[in-house]
Amino acid sequence: MTSAQLEIQLIGAIVAIACAIPGTFLVLRKMAMISDAISHSILPGIVLGFFITQDLNSPLLILLAALTGVITVILVEFIQKTGLVKEDTAIGLVFPALFSIGVILIAKNANDVHLDIDAVLLGELAFAPFDRLVVDGMDIGPKSLWVIGSILLITLTLLLLFFKELKLSTFDKGLAATLGFSPAILHYGLMTISSVTVVGAFDAVGAVLVVALIIAPAATAYLLTDNLKHMLFLSCCFGIFAAIAGYWLANVLDASIAGSMSTVLGIVFLLVYLFAPKQGVFSVFFKERQQRKEVSLLVFLLHLQNHQEAEERHVNHLREHINWQKVQAKTVLELASKNNLIYISDNIVSLTDKGQEFTDEALLYITTNKVTAIEELKERFFLFRG
Amino acid sequence: MELTDFFTDYTLRTITLGTAILGAICGMLGSFAVLRKQSLLGDAISHAALPGIALAFIITGVKDANIILIGALISGLIGTFWIKSIVKRTRLKNDTALGLILSLFFGFGMLLLTFIQKMPNANQAGLDKYLFGQAATLVEEDVWVMATVTGISLIVLLLFWKELKLLLFDADYTKTLGFNTRFLDILITTFIVLAIVLGLQTVGVVLMSAMLLAPAAAARQWTNNLGIMIFLASIFGAFSGVFGTAISASQNNLSTGPVIVLVAATFVLISFIFSPGRGLLFRKIRFRKNRRELHLKKTLTFMHHIVKEHENISRPHAIRILNNFQGFTRKTLNKLEDKKFVRIEGNQWAMTQEGYDEAESIYNQLGSEND
Q1: Distance between CA A290 and CA A310 in Å, rounded?
Q2: Residue B312: enclosing H or E segment and its boundaries?
Q3: I need a surface site. Which of A104, A183, A193, B324 has the fewest CB within 10 A?
Q4: DSSP label at A314?
């Protein structure tokens, strides 16, 4: 592995961490699409900044472009406040317009601007190591590493300083406001940090893919944990993994690094989406099936309890009475007898003592509407194990 | 370039016709997206179509516009239904799902595009026109495809007009009436995806969503009637397409997508400010007018308050005593005089019988509103 390769992976990983931190809060605050808007609308800011500074890594350009991002947010909020269009339409109107201005500016000044459309969409991570920062004749590493490194440092400092406030205002805006933390300052602070990060990352991964780095790690982590600190940590891990694996994938396919980074993120998300222990599609599917079975069992037991007459409790009658399919009736019947809740003699189903007791308690719980109680009840009766 | 070129030059006519039809269908279906609060779905769909474009090319190896469209359509549909399933099955919210699919699909698409560029196949050039659109590549066949799709969606729209309208404004009620909302939802979403895919060649993946939104958002400002809104949105869309193409054709080195979007954005801006019912300008004017009227009424009732203590209502009072009253200015007093509610004599004013009656009726109105 050459030092250029190492540097690319390092830059990729740092960009990924710098994006994942604000991304976590954006996803939790339901403002993920704002990052999409910012990443597009900073383009005119970058182009104008470039006209002024002639240097893509100049701090002034980053500030100008970040300002465009904040202006976008303000503009979107202004349009939302007029009530002329619904909230998401405002986002959808503002950023394409600004992005178009940026694209036209680039196209009209193609000769003067050292920027092209592909770089805008994809970034040029592969070339990052060639643009070195030289201080006093000493080569101290790629420029973009320093840029994104300082942004990450600022983000981390702010995160540590305001973690409590951010957490509170993310989960309970009203409480945060009553306790005296200004939601507006936190909101615009977060927006500013996001804008600065997007601008810093823009050079490396481009306008659209920076959105992938912001949203995807956080969304994936959100499916795995309920703890904010764990979520931050996990999304950073996913980001780093995507940066490194994406680099090698791009190496193999000889394709865009940024594109393969987001492809890796996509694969990771798909796996978590399908297999996550609590939120995943499969586990939700099995949970729902289990719950359906439990409800059926309860209905069945209540029916038995309600009817003393033999004919109401005949095996064949049950099927038509509760209107079940044959298979479902059989599963429920088996489940109940396996759990010793019923016994069958001469095709007549009766509740056992245990079944009677369970049904009574379950009925009590249902009528008094205690939500969690039924879980405890299931434990006590060793139910639903089969 | 002369204006008459549009009617004589074959290529230009094809392109103009194509962008006009595209604008119309986008406006028509975009109205539904905007009213259903699915504005950003268009953005996600158009980005999600990119891997389909690239894959269609990789699999077939030819750059046939229709095959690529089918690839884009499939990929766009997969993206759309994945978004819906993420929102339904996990705790992730709508905006996260949109941003996620948008960026991941687009990233994958870019990976494939850069992969294709390195392939030893001279055929690949020009796939990147799908990023920002190039109307100049439209041929007559494309226009026919667009016209057919527009025709079909118009027919479907008319067939399901009542159901779709109901679904837009009260989805729950639609369901209780026994309509299959799931079917209707899939129907309208599929047509929106179709419109987006059709526009990719002209406007491009990145900016297609604005083409869908902007005409509808502009049309929304002028009317509260769904039919009129759809009609207006189609017109706005068609004009944005035509103007945008004309401007970009007259310049070198300019993709059509950004120009069309800016023209459409101008329509939106004008509508936001100048629409008579909802526009910001008229709203401000109305606001001012209401406030002035309120001040006038306040002054009048205050005068009435003073006057009714006296037997002769027309007894003059000093203007000075009004000075402490908020909303009173010399101008309002003059206006009251113009309306003959008061008479001004030197620095004294006197209420007329008309003014007294008017103030009484204000009181009565307030009273009946409070009841």
Answers
A1: 30
A2: none
A3: B324
A4: B
Burial of B341 (0-12, 13-18, 19+ CB in 10 A): buried
Give the one of B42, B111, B251 whose C-beta lies nearest to A260's C-beta: B111
Q: Does B52 touch chain A (CB under 8 A)?
A: no
For residue B344, the surrounding DSSP H or E stretch is strand B342-345
Residues A121, A99: Cα–Cα separation, whole Å: 11
Contacts of A42 (CB under 8 A, 6+ apart): A65, A66, A68, A69, A72, A195, A198, A199, A202, A207
B220 and B341 housed in the same domain: no
User: B317 - beta bridge partners?
Assistant: B349
Contact assessment for residue A351 and residue A341, using Cβ atoms and an 8 Å cutoff: yes
Question: pLDDT tens digits, residue range B36-91?
Answer: 888 888 889 999 999 998 899 888 877 777 888 899 999 999 999 999 999 988 88
| pLDDT tier, A384 (very low <50, low <70, confident <90, very high otherwise) | low
Count of CB atoms situated within 10 Å of the CB of B283? 17
Side-chain-side CA neighbours of B270 within 13 Å: the count stands at 9
Residues B342 and B249 in one domain: no
**What's the confidence (pLDDT) of residue A109?**
77
How far apart CA A324 and CA B246 sit, in angstroms, is 66
What is the count of structural domains for chain B? 2
Residue type at position B216: A
Model confidence pLDDT, tens digit, residues A239-269: 999 999 999 998 898 888 888 999 999 999 9
The residues that bridge with A139 in the sheet, in sequence order, are A134
Q: Is the CB of residue A322 less than 8 Å from the CB of residue A303?
A: yes
C-alpha span between B22 and B199 (Å, rounded): 6
Nearest to B111 among A93, A101, A263 (CB): A263
Instruction: Report the amino acid identity of residue A16.
Output: A
Element holding A56 (H helix, E strand): none
Best mutation target among A43, A79, A93, A121 (most B Cβ atoms within 10 Å) is A93
Are the Cβ atoms of B261 and A261 closer than 8 angstroms? Answer: no
User: ipTM more than 0.90?
Assistant: no
Residue with tokens 């706005």: B236
DSSP line for A77-144: HHHHHHTSS-HHHHHHHHHHHHHHHHHHHHHHTTTT-S--HHHHHH--GGGGGGSEEEETTEEEEEHH
Q: Which residues of B touch A254 (CB under 8 A)?
A: 115, 118
Count of CB atoms situated within 10 Å of the CB of B361: 10
CA distance from start to end of chain B: 69
Residue A259 domain boundaries: 3-276
Same domain, B234 and B317: no
Nearest CB neighbour to B40, from listed A88, A117, A273: A88
User: A124 with A194, same domain?
Assistant: yes
Q: How far is the C-alpha of A265 from the C-alpha of A165, rounded, in Å?
A: 30
Q: Are residue A265 and residue A334 in the same domain, yes or no?
A: no
Decide if B45 contacts B192 (C-beta within 8 A).
yes
The answer, yes or no, to whether residue A281 has pLDDT greater than 90, is no
| Residue B215 CA: distances (Å) to CA of A75, A107, A127 | 19, 25, 40
Pair A14, A29: CB distance under 8 Å: no
Pick from B86, B91, B100 the residue to mutate for testing the A interface (most A CBs within 10 Å).
B100
Indicate which CATH number applies to the domain containing A312.
1.10.10.10
pLDDT tens for residues A111-146? Answer: 655 666 666 677 777 777 777 777 777 777 788 888
Report CA-CA distances (Å) from B205 to A115, B47, B100, B131, B147. 20, 6, 16, 5, 21
Whether the Cβ atoms of residue B210 and residue B261 lie closer than 8 Å to each other: yes
Query: How far is B61 from B121, CA to CA, in rounded Å?
Result: 9
Q: Which amino acid is at A170?
A: T
Instruction: Using a CB–CB cutoff of 8 Å, tell me whether B268 touches chain A.
Output: yes
Closest by CA position to B161, among listed B252, B227, B104? B227
In a domain, A204, yes or no: yes
